[in-house]
Structures are given as structure tokens and as C-alpha cells.
Amino acid sequence: MTSLPVSSIPSFASAAAQPGASRSAQIQQTLESEILAGTLAPGARLDEVELAARFQVSRTPVREALRHLASAGLIQIRTRQPALVVALSATRLIEMFQVMAELEGLCARLAARRINAAQLAQLSRYQEELAALAGTGEVEMFYEINRRFHELIYEASQNAFLAEQTRALRNRIGLYRKMVTQKPSRRADTLTEHAAVLRALATGDEEGAGAAMRGHVNLLGEKLLDFIALFPKAE
């Protein structure tokens, strides 16, 4: 469990925080972005004093930001010790992926009934972008376009609560999804699996869309073996 030197982390001034947000909200947004991007890796320490110095604030807004991150399940707050970015075991992550698959499957099933032509066209454009990126080394961009593809399906479900809950869980396992995306074979499989989701959405096949999305997100077969291989020391 290591902490990143303050000097090695981007300054507060460069953070992509929303204009007008409070200091604690800006700090929260910055740290959340760094956790999800892997800049702050699982097990990294978040020391209040170091963060206050980095963001040039008192410890009060830092403490508030850390409380919000803990509520989102991204960090663990410990008594009289620095907070830690949550490190999840392979077993726990597999369980979370199973739940994620059900949530995203429900989003896709509802989207098959409610998606409009403009959203379908945009999904197809995202799929074309992913196809162009799949054979390149631009993994970060592939991951981002893939995120947008899924996000649009959440939106097309027209169920704001479902989208909110799905997004919250996705954020908790986002770094691990990105790690799986590093494998070229997984990117190729993503294109095939997305195509099945798209066909079901285009034809209004609710059950087909749900099943295709569950299969896409869940860790089964070779996907599961590949995932476990990333965490040889996990319990």
C-alpha cells in the first residue's frame, strides 16, 4: 500500500472540476477522476495533510470530500490512519460484475422498447469508432468510446434511477474493466458482442437485448480466466 508523492499528482488548478462547485466538491471530483483513471491505484493512501497541501485548502473540505468518496465505495476511511483507495479481491469483483451484468441487461431490455432513431444512429457511430480503434494501441480512447456506448444505452432506458445505480456500480469497477480492455482479444470480442446488442435494439427484441448485454458484461468462460489472471495474488 503506497501513497503517491504530492509532486507527482496534477495540481488542483489543472483539475477538470465543474465551474462553481464548492472546494470539497472540486476535490472530490478530482480524486474520483484519478481513482477511476488508475492514477490513484487500489491501495494508494490518501493523507489529509498531504491533500490539504496539494489543494491549498484546510483539512475540512478534504475531509468532506473523502467522506463522499467513502460513501461511493471508492475509498476506505480508517481511524487515525490515512484513507485508502479500495482494493477489491477477484472474488468480490466477480460478484460485482455479475450484478453489473444484470443492471446493464435491464438497461438494454428497456432501451429496446424506448430507444429512438437518433440514439440508435449514435450507437452505430460509436461502434464504427470502436472498430477503427480496436487494432490500434489507443486503449484509453477505445475504453472512453466504449463507456459512451454503454452510457447512451443507460440514457435510452429512460429510467433515471436505474441509470444512476448502474453508473454508480460501473464507477466502482471502472478501473478493473479498463484493465480487461487492455487485452486485444477482449477489444475484438467487444465489437462482436456490441453488434449483437445493436441488432436486438434495432429490432425491438427486449429479451435478446438483455441477454446480449448480460453476456457482454458478465465474466464468463475465457473472460473470467483472463480476469483472474490479472489478480494472481487476490484472495
Describe the structure in your own words.
This is Transcriptional regulator. One of its GO terms (molecular function) is DNA binding. Keywords: DNA-binding, Transcription, Transcription regulation. With 235 residues, the protein is mainly alpha-helical. The chain has two domains: 63 residues, Winged helix-like DNA-binding domain superfamily/Winged helix DNA-binding domain (Arc Repressor Mutant, subunit A, Orthogonal Bundle); 140 residues, Four Helix Bundle (Hemerythrin (Met), subunit A). Helix content is 68%, strand content 5%. The chain has ten helices and three strands; from the N terminus they run H-E-H-H-E-E-H-H-H-H-H-H-H. A three-stranded antiparallel beta sheet has the order 1-3-2. Helix 2 packs across helix 3 and helix 5 runs antiparallel to helix 8. The protein is globular.
Q: In short, what is this structure?
A:
This protein is mostly helical.
CATH class of the largest domain: Mainly Alpha
How far from one another are the termini? 16 Å
Instruction: Figure out the total of helices.
Output: 10
Name given to the CATH homologous superfamily of the largest domain: GntR ligand-binding domain-like
CATH architecture verdict of the largest domain: Up-down Bundle
Strand order of the largest sheet: 1-3-2
Largest β-sheet summary:
3 strands, antiparallel
**If you consult CATH, what is the topology of the largest domain?**
Four Helix Bundle (Hemerythrin (Met), subunit A)
Quantity of strands, as a count: 3
Q: What number is the mean pLDDT?
A: 85
Helix content: 55-70%
Tally of distinct domains: 2
Task: Using the alpha-carbon principal axes, give the shape.
Answer: globular
Gyration radius (Cα, Å) is 19 Å
The H-and-E topology, N to C, reads as: HEHHEEHHHHHHH
